[in-house]
Amino acid sequence: MAAVAFPDLKPSGRSYNPGEYPQTEFKALNGATTRMLYGNRRTNAELSLDFQNISDSEAALILANYERVAPTADWVSFSTATGAVGAGSTLAPYLLESASGLRWRYAAPPSVSSVLPGISTVQCRFVGQLDAA
């Protein structure tokens, strides 16, 4: 299990969800609610990256990264120049999940749309998961 660097491409759009703390909610017949917290670390963070109007060769780099990571126990690592490009120094650690212990894995295969001959748009979705130690 090892980190595999995402290709050195800058996304044109990004969305991030920090995930949640694992818990279960119980409701009594009288409406009282009790929550059972199962850990003190977030899980299932989500990161979506859009790459608009990139060359087909750049799109192929993303697909090759997916082929390298998806069938293994490896995960994707981002840098401040890729997944967190444009984010401030206080937001970037969340996008990179550098201190949380979460590891980015593909949530789904990358989606490639042809725009023009030789030009594509690629959408990637990742999920941040904790590995059992």
List the helices and strands and how they pair.
Layout lengths: L2 E3 L7 E5 L5 E5 L5 E5 L7 E11 H14 L5 E3 L14 H5 L6 E4 L4 E6 L2 E11 L4
Parallel strand pairs: 1-6
Antiparallel strand pairs: 2-5, 3-4, 5-9, 7-9, 8-9
- The total domain count is 1
Which class best fits the helix and strand makeup? mainly beta
Main sheet makeup: 5 strands, antiparallel
Average pLDDT score: 92
Low-confidence stretches: none
State the end-to-end distance.
Answer: 12 Å
Helix tally?
2
How much of the residues is beta strand, in percent? 35-45%
Number of strands: 9
Q: Give Rg in angstroms.
A: 17 Å
H/E series:
EEEEEHEHEEE
Q: Level of helix content?
A: 10-25%
Shape: elongated
Report on the structure:
The protein has 133 residues and is mainly beta. The protein has one domain (3-129). The protein has two helices and nine strands, in the order βββββαβαβββ. It has helices at residues 56-69, 92-96, and strands spanning 3-5, 13-17, 23-27, 33-37, 45-55, 75-77, 103-106, 111-116, 119-129. The strands form three sheets. Strands 2, 5, 7, 8 and 9 form a five-stranded antiparallel sheet that branches. A hairpin with a 5-residue loop joins β3 and β4. The mean pLDDT is 92.
